[in-house]
Amino acid sequence: MTPQEYGYLQNMLKERSGLVLSEDKQYLIESRLSPVVKKNGLENISDLIRKLQLPGSENLKSAVTEAMTINESFFFRDKTPFKNFEEVMMPSLLKARQAKRSLRIWSAAASSGQELYSLAILIKEKGDAFRSWKVELMGTDISTEILEKAKTGLYSQFEVQRGMPSPLLVKYFQQVGSLWQVESGLRAMVSFRNYNLLDNFSSLGTFDIVFCRNVLIYFDRETKQDVLERIARQMAPDGYLVLGAAETIVGITDKFEPVDGRQGLLRLKNGSAVGALSESSPLQQAAADLAANAKKIA
Ligand SMILES: C[S@@+](CC[C@H](N)C(=O)[O-])C[C@H]1O[C@@H](n2cnc3c(N)ncnc32)[C@H](O)[C@@H]1O
Fold first, then answer.
1. Is 243 in the pocket of ligand 1 (CB under 6 A)?
2. CATH code reported for the domain at 80-278
3. What is the rounded CA–CA span in Å between residue 237 and residue 271?
4. Closest CA relative to residue 209, chosen from 47, 56, 41, 96
5. Share of the chain residues as helix, strand and coil, in percent rounded to the nearest 5
6. Which residue has its alpha carbon closest to ligand 1 atom 3?
7. What is the arithmetic mean of pLDDT over 241-264?
8. What pLDDT score does 276 carry?
9. CB 6: neighbour CB atoms within 10 A?
10. Which residue has the higher pLDDT, 231 or 275?
């Protein structure tokens, strides 16, 4: 592959998905793109890159972008975020949303779904605590193919062994041939949809918890900042953001602050006070409205 061809791929991937393909990643191209070359009846990678530049190559561009994404995921990955979910996020939001009885959780780079199903299991394990609550668990990803897998909830023996404790496997999965399938009750709790992190989030609504893990590492600083600040706008003032173990906001955005002693867990800066108000009693709300009106008149 010529430097020009590699440069074309670098620009295309950055523009379409945010992925920064550094110079030392050339070795990946052959293994990742050969199946796309074959599937489309093309000669080789150079032929593919020529075809990408022709009008009407939208589907091919999506196929190349998807082939270059890294979809690695597993159940209860890194453990700490799920410990934080059980020990910090659930208790605090169960209390704060007591009146509204609804919770919205977004897995913003859901891949094959293990992250979202792990959260659904922890919610189920809470038993009665969420009875008569409306809990929405939404997973999004740029890859249509990986989302199809997530929706089926089907995993190999190797995939379930990677992180799913045996008692939970027995309780929440059914064996289907050589595979394991997440039980229908859990599958009904989650939804998956195709969404690019570079696109506008405003149609997604407001979330109480956002898991955005192990995707920002592939983006440059500007893209990380842009994605994080747009996520901030979709969060409830007292909501939580969870990043991957290798990800940080330091030097990227000041919209969030860490939760003390809780690795990878963030809240909106100065957000909790507003959140407390939004969940206040009707009387407190009326007092706040009056105060705001008085300020406007003054
Ligand atoms: C390494 S996986 C992380 C999965 C999961 N969050 C975890 O930590 O186990 C990264 C996922 O990000 C997705 N991705 C990459 N770029 C994206 C983009 N611009 N918009 C949405 N998803 C993207 C990939 O398709 C892939 O499934």
1. no
2. 3.40.50.150
3. 4
4. 96
5. 50, 15, 30
6. 214
7. 96
8. 35
9. 17
10. 231
**Domain 3-68: CATH class, spelled out:** mainly alpha
Structure tokens of 65?
Answer: 């972008």
Place of tokens 């407190």: 284
Task: Answer for the pair 45, 5: CB distance below 8 angstroms, yes or no.
Answer: yes
User: 264: CA distance to ligand 1 center in Å?
Assistant: 17
Residue nearest (by alpha carbon) to ligand 1 atom 2: 71
Q: Which two tokens stand for residue 264?
A: 């990878």
15 CB within 6 A, ligand 1: no
Amino acid making up residue 152: T
Number of C-alpha atoms within 13 angstroms, CB side, residue 94?
15
Higher-scoring residue by pLDDT: 176, 24: 176
Q: 294 falls in which pLDDT band (50, 70, 90)?
A: very low
d(CA 114, CA 130): 21
pLDDT value for 272? 52
Domain boundaries along the sequence of the chain: 3-68, 80-278
Distance 293 CA to ligand 1 centre (A): 44
Question: Contact 221/252 with Cβ under 8 angstroms?
Answer: yes
* Whole-Å CA distances, 11 to 18, 102, 275: 9, 42, 40
Average pLDDT over residues 139-146: 97
